[in-house]
Write a structure and sequence with these properties.
Elements lengths: L1 H7 L3 E5 L8 H11 L5 E5 L5 E2 L2 E2 L13 E4 L3 H14 L3 E4 L9 H17 L2 E3 L5 E4 L6 E4 L6 E9 L2 H13 L3 E7 L8 H10 L5 E6 L6 H12 L6 E5 L13 H5 L2 H12 L2 E2 L3 H12 L2 E2 L5 E2 L7 E6 L2 H13 L3 E2 L4 H10 L10 E2 L6 H13 L5 E6 L7 H13 L5 E5 L6 H9 L4 E2 L2 H18 L13 H13 L4 E2 L1 H9 L4 E2 L2 E4 L2 H11 L3 E6 L12 E5 L2 H18 L7 E6 L5 E10 L3 E8 L4 H4 L2 E5 L4 H10 L3 H4 L10 H17 L3 E11 L6 E3 L2 E5 L7
Parallel strand pairs: 1-2, 1-5, 5-6, 6-7, 10-11, 10-12, 12-13, 13-14, 17-18, 17-19, 17-20, 20-21, 21-22, 24-33
Antiparallel strand pairs: 3-4, 8-9, 8-11, 15-16, 23-34, 25-28, 26-27, 26-28, 29-30, 29-32, 30-31, 32-33, 32-34
Helix pairs in contact: 3-4, 6-7, 7-9, 10-16, 11-16, 12-13, 13-14, 14-15, 17-18, 19-20, 22-24
Length: 719
């Protein structure tokens, strides 16, 4: 905290590379600090100039006679290295390197960046950059614009970080148009030292920061990021974190030999990180601002305390003076994961007593275009008291009878008496400006359009689900990891990297998966004998490293109930497999006991550099890549994460009781997901894995592995 304070709240700043030429970065950054009324002491450093903007210049940092907190370095890589050495000798506490030409341009730049980082670490100081916009702290007691953006944002309670300096300037311009304030604002560039996780920790501890906004391109830490951010979004002082990440539509999925590998693109990794850590992902810059402003407001309660109001549920009441915007809000409310609240009789009677006969007494409540402030106040007070309402959206369109300011005052009076959130949409700009200003000053989120308000309310509800998430007692699991490790080592020793059911099932058994009796037949006669010993009916599956999707090759037969049927199917399967892949090495046919009926789900794993194993769950069978109804989480996961994972997929309702069908054994599914997570953590040799399908039986009767495939990769030998 203290080390980053030297960067965000310095008492003295040296601009190394300050220039006398307007338009150059070194001149503009120095000018921004000077004209921004920085509360500390400012020193330009340039060996070729006597002064910059009438401020005495120094040849090097070492020549400055006073103590220094922060050095802003705007020099090419090699002079920047010398400036860092001088700064360390001077005893500076923090460094920001704005200039480019380092890691991003090639090996020589990378080498210099690494040397600078090593110097900073040895000296115990923190560094921002290189290749960044700079740092801004607009709060009155600091007033620092150490960046090359001409805009100093107004003070606020939202902190923003970005990997893109160019985006930062656009965001600052956008913020100015929205009259949007910041507590801290930073571009992190190459993040050689300070990265997102360091800043998240700092912003969370910063009492001037209530909400954190991030523009993200890539992360270099996965599991650690999840654990740290989960504490930030959930702890004693939970801080909402909103992220917009580039690359959502990129073709991230790799060419893979498993369903999981085909579905698990890089964006699935990031979505998992955000879900597991409580981060809210947004799709646009506009939403980023809308949602941040919603979370930034801490409504003033009747008790005289500020608190962030979040809904207990997703039931929303809409109060409007125009039917069209009410319909738009209704549509977007449903799209945002919310439902229209149903009013009780007392609420409807109260509305009837205050509203004209032409008004709508049901949700959305239309108070009619000639509504004055008292009509809004009475309608909002009635619906917000209803126990079936979790919050309200209030829409105002400017009519000749409308007084925006008086209506805003009425809304504020009702809002102060309630613990439920109220979001407003005052449509227009000029005619409603006084009302908008009053709402903002009184901590009530207000938007220009009803769909924006509805999306923001949906985000509040998602946040409330995170804050109120269920915490379950953990499973007590016992695994034979040693035996599984021995099987894996033996397979790798034999050169087996693509495991079918024979070896794969033995590994799964070590982790508590229920598997069916399975044997390999080399001939039709052997297949018939094995089937008789196993007991009819049986399933038959072709075994070939080259045939990954057996059904495509006619390599799966089910429900065979006689030796004759088995022997005939054996010959037919070999014929089909050869036609499908003439060069395939056919090892034989698996004879497997027919599983009891169950609902088909898929378990999977795909391992990523840096982040580790990504676990997949979804509805399985042959259509998994068609419907793509799957959820991902980074391992390790616990029971709580397993439950949220299961509930995420659209097909979750099919695991519950419906239309006379019994509920599936969901608890076993959760337990096996945790076991799969443990297995992937314990055995890094598992690169990809599919269990498809896993047949989930009715509640209390477990789940059975019907098919699996596993891809191993020998661990790299260091040195």
């Amino acid at each position: 905290m203290d080390k980053l304070d030297a960067i965000f709240c310095p008492q003295s700043v040296a601009v190394v590379g300050a220039s006398t030429s307007p338009g150059k970065v070194g001149h503009d950054i120095f000018a921004n600090i000077l004209k921004g009324k920085f509360k500390g002491t400012l020193y330009p450093v340039n060996p070729k100039a006597r002064s910059v903007l009438s401020v005495r210049c120094y040849p090097t940092v070492r020549d400055i006679p006073d103590p220094l907190d922060l050095a802003i370095i705007i020099l090419p890589p090699r002079p920047a290295l010398q400036a860092v050495e001088d700064s360390i000798e001077k005893g500076i506490k923090g460094v920001v390197i704005v200039s480019a030409g380092f890691r991003e341009v090639g090996p020589e730049g990378r080498e210099i960046e690494d040397r600078i980082l090593a110097l900073c670490k040895e000296a115990g100081i923190r560094m921002i950059g290189p290749n960044c916009l700079g740092v801004i702290n607009p709060l009155d007691d600091v007033s620092l614009n150490a960046s090359f953006s001409i805009r100093m944002p107004k003070p606020g309670n939202i902190s923003f970080m970005s990997q893109s300096g160019a985006l930062c300037t656009a965001v600052l311009d956008f913020a100015a148009d929205k009259d949007f304030g910041f507590s801290k604002f930073i571009s992190i560039g190459n993040k050689a030292d300070v990265d997102e996780l360091d800043l998240l920790r700092y912003f969370h501890q910063d009492m001037d920061t209530e909400v954190i906004m991030i523009y993200l391109e890539e992360l270099r830490r996965g599991p650690e990021f999840i654990e740290v951010v989960k504490k930030i979004t959930s702890g004693d002082r939970p801080t909402p974190v909103l992220v917009i990440k580039s690359g959502r539509t990129g073709a991230g999925a790799q060419a893979a030999a498993s369903h999981t590998g085909a579905l698990a693109g890089s964006e699935a990794v990031y979505d998992s990180i955000f879900e597991q850590s409580g981060i809210i992902r947004v799709d646009s810059i506009n939403d980023l601002f809308d949602f941040a402003s919603t979370f930034a407001y801490k409504n003033f309660s009747a008790l005289g305390k500020f608190r962030r109001k979040i809904p207990d549920g997703n039931r929303v009441a809409i109060v409007t003076n125009a039917g069209g915007p009410g319909i738009v809000a209704t549509d977007m409310t449903v799209t945002s994961g919310l439902t229209l609240a149903k009013f009780n009789e007392e609420t409807i009677e109260t509305l009837a007593s205050h509203l004209p006969a032409t008004a709508s007494l049901h949700n959305p409540v239309d108070v009619i275009g000639d509504a004055a402030s008292d009509r809004y106040e009475n309608a909002l007070a009635a619906v917000i008291r209803d126990e079936g309402v979790d919050g309200a959206l209030v829409i105002l369109t400017p009519q000749s009878m409308t007084n925006a300011l008086e209506t805003a005052e009425a809304i504020a009076r009702v809002t102060k008496r309630s613990h439920k959130p109220v979001l407003c949409c005052f449509m227009g700009i000029v005619d409603v400006s006084s009302g908008v200003k009053y709402l903002q000053e009184n901590g009530i989120p207000v938007f220009r359009f009803p769909e924006s308000a509805a999306r923001a309310f949906g985000t509040l509800y998602r946040y409330s689900q995170w804050m109120n998430r269920q915490e379950l007692a953990q499973f007590s699991l016992s695994h034979d990891s040693q035996k599984a490790g021995e099987i894996i080592a033996d397979c790798l020793k034999q050169g087996k990297t693509r495991l079918g059911e024979l070896d794969g099932l033995d590994i799964l058994k070590c982790y508590g998966f229920d598997v069916l009796p399975t044997e390999l037949a080399k001939t039709g006669a052997e297949a018939a004998r094995i089937a008789e010993n196993t007991g009819f009916p049986v399933v038959m599956k072709i075994v070939s490293p080259q045939i990954l999707h057996k059904s495509d090759a006619g390599g799966v037969k089910v429900g065979l109930d006689s030796p004759q049927a088995v022997e005939a199917a054996f010959e037919k399967m070999l014929e089909s497999a050869k036609a499908y892949s003439p060069d395939a090495d056919i090892e034989g046919v698996l004879i497997q006991q027919m599983a009891a009926p169950g609902r088909e789900v898929i378990f999977g794993c795909n391992r990523y550099p840096i982040f580790g194993p990504l676990i997949m769950f979804g509805f399985g069978g042959i259509f998994v890549e068609v419907f793509k109804d799957v959820a991902f989480r980074l391992a390790p996961i616990d029971r709580n994460e397993a439950r949220r994972m299961v509930k995420t997929i659209k097909g979750y309702k099919l695991l519950r009781a419906f239309r006379g069908k019994p509920e599936s054994d969901i608890e076993t599914v959760e337990k096996l997901l945790v076991s799969l997570s443990d297995m992937t953590i314990n055995h890094p040799e598992i690169k990809e894995l599919d269990i498809n399908p896993l047949l989930v039986h009715e509640k209390g009767k477990g789940a059975t592995v019907a098919d699996c495939r596993m891809i191993l990769e020998a661990p790299e030998v260091s040195g």
